[in-house]
Amino acid sequence: MNKKEIEELIRFVAKAGVSEVHLEQKDFKITIKNPTKEQxxxxxxxxxxxMQMPAPAQPQQVIAAPxxxxxxxxxxxxxxxxxxxxxxxxxxxxxxxxSPDKPNFVNVGDEVKEGQxxxxxxxxxxxxxxxxxIKGKIVKVLVEHSTPVEYDQPLFLIDPS
Length: 161
Hints:
This protein is α+β, with helices and mostly antiparallel strands. The chain contains 2 helices and 10 strands; from the N terminus they run H-E-E-H-E-E-E-E-E-E-E-E.
């Protein structure tokens, strides 16, 4: 095989879109590789999370912070004890509105009566209207619109007075 035949073979391999050609005859061997057609595979090592030791806390700050945080928590717990909780009667998705373009069934500050629909819980493609079992004023909505809820999960706090 002469130089001109080798050059023609190289052009043919490039045009054909082949990545590699091996040609072997009785008096010679030739391998032509087309680097533009080879697949380049990058292998990166797996990233290991870096474990950092927490900085040692100063004892004075640690003691002071919980003491300050404990006071509001105790106050909130005392305040919530006078409220009644309406809990989810089933597992599903909680909705505050009857449909996306409608207003909420109830808002904080609204007065509710026994038997009044306060939300919908969707379970297995069925929309179940949840009614208030007590009369009072909505103090707090404990669940975000269109989020999953569990059985017996608190939904609303109501002030029955």
